[in-house]
Amino acid sequence: MKTLSKRTKLTYFGGLLLAAMSCTPLPEETASEASDKMYSIEEAFEIVAAENDVARTLYTKAIVGAGKKQGLKFHEDWEKDEVEAGPLPALFLRGIAGDIRKKGEVPLGLFLGSDFPVRKSNKFVGKQAELFAAIREDGKPKYFYDEENQLYTAMFPDFAAAAPCVNCHNEHPETTKTDWALGDIMGATTWTYPSDSVSFDELQGIIMAYRDGAAATFQTYLDKAAGFKESDVPAVGATWPVGGYSLPTPDVFLDSVNELASEKTLKGILKI
Ligand code: HEC
Asked: CB count, 10 Å around CB of 243?
């Protein structure tokens, strides 16, 4: 069977959603109102944050963790010409955030910060620092309206989900903390959006902007890898690093994200 493309999958979600909605016949006006602004921004943030969790963990374990064992390198200066390396997980996320901002199709903001960051510019300040302190207490996401920037904001804890997270941070020369342990809350992803609710189309736009950003960032990594010195260029195709000195194509990577995230995303979309 042919694998469904990303867009087909979302259309498929849409079909399921409409099928679910059609169980309760509504008068026409109500139906069109119902299809408009039907998700609170909290619900939308939860869905995209869950996708991000999957993509980030997959990238950390299956690309960075497994890749290092094969001899692939990952570095904070990966974008420099003379450095033969791929993006660290945090920089993969920053690539996604940058792509969403650059394309400008969806007003979604994304930032990864901490109270004990490796990079000073990643330290939470102001309201976000206050809320991050509360996340440390209860481990739960926080939602608030940022008056200053007029943005609805959500912060989700970022857990040390894999050994490379802990090892690399503890050993980093600029780290502000050296005893991170597996499972710790190492920081939080902050998401922003200018309205308090979204339509199905807007929600779809948010999810697609994230997925497209992940695909574009992964492609930037592959483009960089293609320019490594000849003996260091990894094979690119269907094989993941666990199977050799190779990297999956963005489609193969994204298909796995979709498979792992779909059930949760679908439940979020259907509110079940
Ligand atoms: C190989 C090294 C490495 C690995 C693996 C790694 N990080 Fe990082 N991480 C960094 C570096 C370096 C930065 C700062 C990047 C920048 O902003 O320039 C960073 C940034 C961060 C930040 C933002 C705050 C800060 O410390 O600057 C968080 C939160 C974070 N990482 C959590 C994680 C988690 C969780 C994982 C595993 C899923 C992980 N990291 C894996 C090196 C690593």
From this structure: 13
Over residues 61-68, the mean pLDDT reads: 94
Confidence of residue 72 (pLDDT cuts 50, 70, 90): very high
pLDDT at 2: 41
Q: Given a cut of 60, is residue 79 above it in pLDDT?
A: yes
Q: Please give the distance, rounded to the nearest whole angstrom, from the Cα atom of residue 164 to the centre of ligand 1.
A: 10
CA distance 252 to 248: 6
Q: Whose CA is nearest to atom 9 of ligand 1?
A: 90
- Spatial distance between the Cα atoms of 50 and 68, rounded to a whole number of angstroms: 26
User: Residue 121 and residue 114: Cα distance in Å, rounded?
Assistant: 10
Cα–Cα distances (Å) from 245 to 178, 231, 237, 264, in that order, read 31, 11, 11, 32
Q: Which residue has the tokens 């920053």?
A: 94
State in Å: Cα 182 to ligand 1 middle. 14
CB 37 within 8 A of CB 198: yes
Structure confidence at residue 35 (pLDDT): 52
158 Cα: distance to centroid of ligand 1 (angstroms) = 10
What lies within 8 Å, CB to CB, of 125 at 6+ separation is none
* Residue from 54, 55, 74, 78 nearest 66 by CA: 74
Q: What is the pLDDT of residue 160?
A: 92
